[in-house]
């Protein structure tokens, strides 16, 4: 049954990711803003869920797995980041490729830290 929940949550996460991409950013953008945006949001969301929701509330393990592994993991995408970086390199955009990797990693870590701190502040109130 866990596989079904992870699959359903994963379907929702991937549909949301696709929706963010088509609603917020043009498909012909030079820089992959869509993937960067969902990865940064996902980094914050998983950290916040882990620190606040999963720690403080009595949520069943099945639900935690479905949300974290299913929804958030399918909303974010490392494989697309990798492919888009290679495409930037192949198109001679080495500075943009480097910037994309740097912002993705440092931004993801920063958003995770922000998610943890936001959850901590909420817990103290």
Description:
The model has no long low-confidence stretch (mean pLDDT about 90). This protein has helices at about 1-25, 35-55, 60-75, 80-90, 95-125. The longest helix has about 30 residues, at about 95-125. Helix 2 (about 35-55) packs parallel to helix 5 and helix 4 (about 80-90) runs antiparallel to helix 5. It is mainly α and about 120 residues long. The protein has one domain. Belongs to the fluoride channel Fluc/FEX (TC 1.A.43) family. Fluoride-specific ion channel. Important for reducing fluoride concentration in the cell, thus reducing its toxicity. It catalyses: fluoride(in) = fluoride(out). This is Fluoride-specific ion channel FluC. It is found in: Cell membrane.
Topology, pairings included?
Blueprint: H1 2-24, H2 33-56, H3 61-75, H4 78-90, H5 94-124
Structure in a nutshell:
The protein is mainly alpha-helical. It is built from five helices and no strands.
């Amino acid at each position: 049954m866990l596989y079904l929940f992870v699959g359903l949550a994963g379907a929702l996460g991937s549909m949301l990711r696709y929706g963010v991409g088509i609603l917020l950013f043009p498909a012909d953008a030079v820089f992959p803003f869509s993937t960067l945006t969902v990865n940064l949001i996902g980094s914050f969301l998983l950290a916040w869920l882990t620190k606040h929701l999963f720690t403080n509330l009595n949520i069943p393990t099945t639900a935690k797995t479905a949300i974290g592994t299913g929804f958030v993991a399918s909303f974010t995408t490392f494989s697309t980041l990798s492919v888009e970086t290679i495409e930037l390199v192949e198109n001679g955009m080495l500075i943009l490729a480097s910037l994309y990797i740097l912002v993705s990693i440092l931004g993801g870590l920063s958003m995770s830290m922000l998610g943890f701190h936001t959850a901590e502040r909420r817990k103290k109130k």
